[in-house]
Amino acid sequence: MAFDSKTHLLTFAGMTANTTNTKLHPAIIPLMAVAAGVTVANIYYNQPILKDIGQSVHATGAEIGKVSMFAQLGYGLGMFFLIPLGDKVNRKRLILLLSTLLMIALAGFSFATQLYQVYALSLLVGLFATSAQILMPMAATLDNVNRGKTVGKVFSGILVGILGARVISGLIAGWLGWRFVYGISAGMVFVVAILLKLYLPNVPPKFKGNYVGLLKSALSLVGEFKILRQAALLGFFTFGIFCSFWTTLTFHLSNAPLNFSASTIGLFGFIAIGGALVAPWFGKLADKGNTHRSLLVSVGMIIGSVILLKVFPYSIVVLIISIFFLDIGVQATQITNFARIYSLDEQAHSRLNTIYMTTYFIGGSAGTFFGLLSWKMGGWDMSTWQMLLWGVIAIVLVMMMKQPNGAGEKQAK
What we know:
The protein is mainly alpha-helical. The chain has helices spanning 7-12, 28-40, 50-56, 61-81, 91-109, 115-128, 132-142, 147-176, 178-199, 211-224, 226-254, 262-267, 269-278, 281-287, 291-311, 316-341, 349-399. The protein is built from 17 helices and no strands. α2 crosses α8 and α15 packs across α17. The chain crosses the membrane at residues 24-44, 94-112, 118-142, 154-174, 180-200, 231-254, 260-282, 294-312, 318-342, 354-373, 385-401. InterPro entries: MFS, MFS_dom, MFS_trans_sf.
């Protein structure tokens, strides 16, 4: 399928899609996992280096904190307006196009000198990084026999990208300065895009209508599937806690009495990566039909971690334990939600992903906004109160689910 007027961008990048791929290369799923991680990491590079970026563009803490919000907002917009195209157009070409635009945005970010430029480029980076969410439902389509295992591998790549971004960003900023974070990332995106161009197979689109009909079809899924509504709302609040925590943690650790540098703050991402490696175990519970139990445990971990952070705000040991279990809780909730929604409609994986992930990242943007607002009003104490309130809402949502073992059931409104 031709990609109309935008094909010249792919040609410019040397990435015109190969339409002859018929055999799945044995390395393609690991490659998709790496590509997804490299792509999605760009949304989170800013978090440990907000203070450095702010000083460079002469912005206050409150002003520069909005960089995270704009990146997540762009990702949310991309989820709704771009990801449904995965059911309508050639996914390989769409991924390569978005990768090209992402490289351009990252290169521009590395030269930004004004706050408005940082805001605009953060929005664009978030928007074009959504190719990671085209790769995941594509992986589900490529391997129907081992779908859970395949999707789990790609999602693990996304988790490592999200969590490893803080480590990489902090270290590079400490050694070379924050601008090199985005310059190096542009190069990494270029490399994985070339590999995807060479090895990613073509998957025929399944939706034959127009773009407006595609969006309407995606929205209709909200009313069609109760499980989708439950998962999306739960994702909103749990990811909101996640983003609120990591955004305000930067200010908490960089202020007195801790006074940590950006590189030291970034090292806490190693703890979160360890939590992400444990989280997929919850997917096995979901495969066995124990979704309700899985969600109760994972959300309970989130609440327990926030309570520890509130009671012991300056204990490094408690902080390490809390980061570990908070990330397990958030990512395990995500994995369980994926297990529930991907079995709802085999023909609408991208659109299901659109509804869920749009809500999910809008929740992240909202969590960042309210986290910054809480920080401004009352510092770390108020920020943890906000996270705890959202955690209570999340556990109430889980307890209100009337059919906890009904993953895959089609439930009308």
